[in-house]
Amino acid sequence: MSPRLSRISVLEQVPLFEGGDVRRTLGDLVRLGRGLEESGYHRLWLAEHHSTGSFLSSAPDLLMMHILDATDRIRVGSGGVMAMHYGSLQMAERFATLATLHPGRVDMGLGRAPGGDMRAAAALNQGRVIDPDAINALIEETVALLRDELPATHPYASVEVRPLPAQMPEVWLLGSSGQSAAWAGVHDLNYAYAQFFTGRQQVEIMNHYRAHLPEGPGRGSIHGGQTLSALCVSAAATREEAREQALVAADARFSLRTGRPMRFRDPATLDAAYRTEVERYLERDTAIIVGTYDEVAQALSSFAENHGTEEVMLISYIDDVEVKTRQYAELASRDLFAPPGNEPDRRFYATGDPARFGELAGRFLGPEVGAARSISQISSGVSA
User: Fold this and answer.
1) Which of 99, 83, 101 is nearest to 91 (CA)?
2) What digits encode the pLDDT tens for the residues 36-88?
3) Any idea of the CA torsion for 327, 332, 333, 338, to the nearest 10 degrees?
4) CATH of the domain spanning 7-233+290-344
5) Would you say the pTM of this structure is higher than 0.90?
């Protein structure tokens, strides 16, 4: 039996909007963290990006400390640390230090991407070229240092991670493929799937991950078994407000896919012709969940149930931290965690071609969306 949705969390990429103030944007992270904690969110993660004017998250561990010091309960982590830019002991010691200062509240999310272009990667690594196999070995070594499991023949076998926290950070692998899911399972790491990046997630991916976990019970926070899916959302009181809000993410994603510089800006500043292109792109983009608070909450519950993940991690692109915090609070107040045996009766209707809707929505919500009907059947009294 697949686990049920039991936790909601947030991933923050720290976008800098055009005309925005850098210090205010970084300072708003504390207000966001406190608001999420008050609303009952489980964790807040910070992304890592380099050499870009679009994001301010170049040092996630420093931003983590900024938020940890200002909050009391919410877990704070990296989503993730791009392992290729660091030494194994460096990563282990930094996160062990954070976990010592804030016991039971630190997550170490590890990524295998560069988090920027190759010129930035070269500058971060003093010109060294890091191949994929070396990144995997680096992650293995980092985790083994934290677990104190390096073999006696390893050159760093006598190296000790200090300080040694009473409770080690949770370690997660970030990915977006069956290969990364299997790798996380084999290495007994928790697994986070970036649905917001790919726009799709195979319904069996989390079971694929679980099938590769070592047999036997888990051995504490430093070992695996947990899953989460990261999803982009735009929720508001009305669909119209949600769509307008979602144009920020659609504009950035459309720019990236058409070779333009990624920018975060107020949709009201877009010229009419380009705005029309972005609106059309938003209609096709399966990576952004758009709707009222109730609609988005139901979509999240359906996604988690259909994809076998016990946690959803939300990401959104809203400049005003009060609006962003209110969106997350409204979603948290909905009944996302329906108890077993009390599943809602879900029916899917389309304003256009039900078959086309089923094909597109099935990639996001799951295969049963293929049974969608025309919305005209509601008014005509046709039974679902």
Assistant:
1) 83
2) 999 999 999 999 999 898 999 999 999 999 999 999 999 999 998 888 888 99
3) 140
4) 3.20.20.30
5) no
